[in-house]
Amino acid sequence: MHYRLSVLLLSMLVLMCPIHFARADTLAPFTSDGCSVFPDGTFEQGELWLGCCQKHDFDYWKGGTFDERLASDKALRVCVAKVGQPQIALLMLAGVRVGGTPYLPTQFRWGYGWPYPRDYGALTADELKQVELLSTNTLIHTISQK
Q: Angle, to 10 degrees, between the axis of helix 50-62 and the axis of helix 66-82?
């Protein structure tokens, strides 16, 4: 009797827990919403730090390790500070550290280019090829529209 109960409980646990070691296999094309739920600049300069956010969006789109996310978030802070807004940069850093977690099904989560859910982790060789291919296509599309 205990054996059957144990097997039943173990089976339920396995079915209820997401499998984090399975990797998503298809990367969606890159998109950027600018600074997500934050302004892209000041009232006087409406796109002052937009370029910083677009680079940050690229990093978030492809995802990767926890350390890569931390480095991207710190780079966003440095970029916004360099355009003359060190206080805004700190506010943005706090926001992305809290709101950018890969564990929430948001459109701006870490690794948002991959199907949800997706945990932290180094990209595989196949995933890196997808990033490279879609990055090249994004660059060509951007240049052709100018």
A: 170
The token pair that represents 29 in the structure block = 């094309």
For residue 76, which amino acid is it? L
**Residue 56 and residue 79: Cα distance in Å, rounded?**
10
Query: Please, is 83 exposed, middle or buried when counting C-beta atoms within 10 Å of its C-beta (0-12, 13-18, 19+)?
Result: middle
List C-alpha distances in Å: 74 to 50, 92, 103, 107, 138: 16, 10, 20, 20, 24
pLDDT of residue 21 exceeding 70, the answer is: no
CA distance linking residue 49 with residue 54, whole number of Å = 9
* Structure tokens belonging to residue 87: 């206080």
CB half-sphere exposure, 145, CA atoms < 13 A: 6
The answer to whether residues 119 and 102 touch, using CB atoms and an 8 Å cutoff, is yes
Q: Is the pLDDT of residue 6 over 70?
A: no
Q: What pLDDT was estimated at residue 109?
A: 97
Closest to 109 measured CA to CA, from 50, 28, 45:
28
Q: Which two tokens stand for residue 127?
A: 């995933």
